[in-house]
């Protein structure tokens, strides 16, 4: 089933459940936000990638307008809902300043693999420890989903966009686990390199080899 959404393309990936704070300053998006606030409607953020509006994005709920500035600019709080696929894109929605488009909501299979999840948690904690990010490790909830950690994996926008398109939790878990298995050895080697650089030039108490 499809529906028409006001669209706010951005060069970011927004995941379902994610809280996103935005500063609104362009006239077209001021109009979009005010209409959503007045009508209690949602809008979409398709990812702007490779110099164009991507086919996938996230439906967004407007939680609140926290501040209206004297010049009409606004600070808003939003939350990601479900993922959509863009069927038709209008640079200007009918009679509006902002873009719009016909979208199809993407179904998500939420079934997860517990073993993979445990491996992800273990490697995430190892990664955060290696990077000195102990706060992230402590804040990781027991019932976390792939979307909860997607922005904390060191993925670039293209990789996050690819993750957004996957339609099952198990698929996303497999991609995340593979990424962690690849990146963790690199991070550890980088930390070792830092240690070697720090030691370079210091006086060393070395024991000569016995031969």
UniProtKB/TrEMBL annotation:
<dbReference type="InterPro" id="IPR046336">
    <property type="entry name" value="Lon_prtase_N_sf"/>
</dbReference>
<dbReference type="Pfam" id="PF02190">
    <property type="entry name" value="LON_substr_bdg"/>
</dbReference>
<feature type="domain" description="Lon N-terminal">
    <location>
        <begin position="4"/>
        <end position="182"/>
    </location>
</feature>
<dbReference type="InterPro" id="IPR003111">
    <property type="entry name" value="Lon_prtase_N"/>
</dbReference>
<dbReference type="InterPro" id="IPR015947">
    <property type="entry name" value="PUA-like_sf"/>
</dbReference>
<protein>
    <recommendedName>
        <fullName>Lon N-terminal domain-containing protein</fullName>
    </recommendedName>
</protein>
